[in-house]
């Protein structure tokens, strides 16, 4: 019991990362032992995988950025002239905008590279 009390977070971390691998590794053909692609049959190349990964990051990241900006606004309003709280609110807004720039910049760079590669192939 002492082992569980000391290492509960490690056990939780192990199961949170290992269980999805077992769940997603479904066997399509039990007789042949063929493993299904969890991303679908259309995702067979690395650029397609990166596209799906970036689209997923954008779908999750944009609402989080909106919530972070709202939270920063709340910090500014609750500061009420206190210089320490205003500094904290400014820092939070700066880090939120940097995160938004990284998120949208990664999408723009990936789009630019993919359009360039497609243009070279034509």
From TrEMBL:
Transmembrane region(s): 60-80, 92-110
Protein name (database record): TrbC/VIRB2 family protein
Signal sequence annotation: 1-25
Keywords: Membrane, Signal, Transmembrane, Transmembrane helix
Pfam family for this entry, one: T4SS_pilin
């Amino acid at each position: 019991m002492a082992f569980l009390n000391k290492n509960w977070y490690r056990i939780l971390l192990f199961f949170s990362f290992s269980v999805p691998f077992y769940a997603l590794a479904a066997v399509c053909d039990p007789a042949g032992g063929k493993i299904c692609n969890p991303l679908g049959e259309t995702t067979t190349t690395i650029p397609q995988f990166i596209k799906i990964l970036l689209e997923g990051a954008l779908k999750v990241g944009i609402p989080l950025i909106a919530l972070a900006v709202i939270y920063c606004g709340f910090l500014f309003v609750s500061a009420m002239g206190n210089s320490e709280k205003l500094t904290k609110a400014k820092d939070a807004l700066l880090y939120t905008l940097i995160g938004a720039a990284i998120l949208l910049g990664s999408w723009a760079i990936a789009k630019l590279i993919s359009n360039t590669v497609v243009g070279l192939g034509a």
